[in-house]
Specification:
By secondary structure, the protein is an alpha/beta fold. It is built from eight helices and ten strands. The radius of gyration is 16 Å and the shape is globular.
């Protein structure tokens, strides 16, 4: 699968890289970023890689709503969209090179489609999926329920681990995107795959 997905990403004009460990991925990401300002999408993968902490030590300008008090979260999301680099994970990456994401608020998918000129998506092998249907199944089984619990959202999946296609205000699956190619706004769109299980 490694060679197939790297080739597929490249054919879709993403800049793919395969790393064996989280440490290797972190060093690669830090090298790509350099001294540029960085916006973050909500991501357990990125948080676990301690990229924010390393960049903070460097003195980069950083914008991440996870690190802000409630009253400043929306402002941080807007600033993240306008940074020089945007970093996040993807809910699923298909064998044919497409990126699938499901958002509740939409700040992440907005930045992936129309945001900073440089995007870095980092994902563990647990997010590699054969096709669209298996990707949606994986997201709604493995990502949405624990994310709902983490956010304290009272959705059925938070309680049962099973998607109920809920209709309430706390619903997390409000927008689903299929990124087939980087959009014209992007000068660099890196997809860094890690040969470890990372994130949700």
């Amino acid at each position: 699968m490694k060679e197939k997905i790297i080739r597929a990403l490249g054919e879709r004009h993403f800049i793919p890289a395969w790393t064996e460990t989280a440490v290797e991925a972190r060093e690669k990401i830090l090298a790509i970023i350099g001294n540029r300002s960085v916006g973050f999408g909500g991501s357990k993968t990125v948080n676990d890689l301690l990229i924010y902490d390393e960049l903070q030590k460097r003195g980069n300008s950083l914008f991440w709503h996870w690190k802000e008090p409630k009253e400043r979260k929306h402002e941080a999301q807007l600033l993240a969209r306008d940074a020089e680099v945007y970093i996040c994970s993807s809910n699923a990456i298909l064998e044919d090179g497409r990126l699938i994401n499901i958002d509740g608020t939409g700040n992440r998918v907005a930045a992936l489609c129309f945001g900073p000129p440089c995007v870095i998506v980092v994902a563990g092998i647990n997010k590699l999926c054969a096709d669209y249907d298996s990707a949606i199944e994986r997201i709604k089984r493995d990502a949405c329920p624990p994310n709902a619990r983490r956010l304290g959202v009272a959705t059925p999946c938070a309680a049962t681990n099973v998607c109920a296609d809920c209709k309430g205000a706390g619903r997390m699956c409000n927008v689903t995107t299929i990124l087939e190619y980087p959009t014209r706004i992007h000068k660099e769109f890196h997809v860094i795959l890690v040969n470890e299980k990372l994130g949700l």
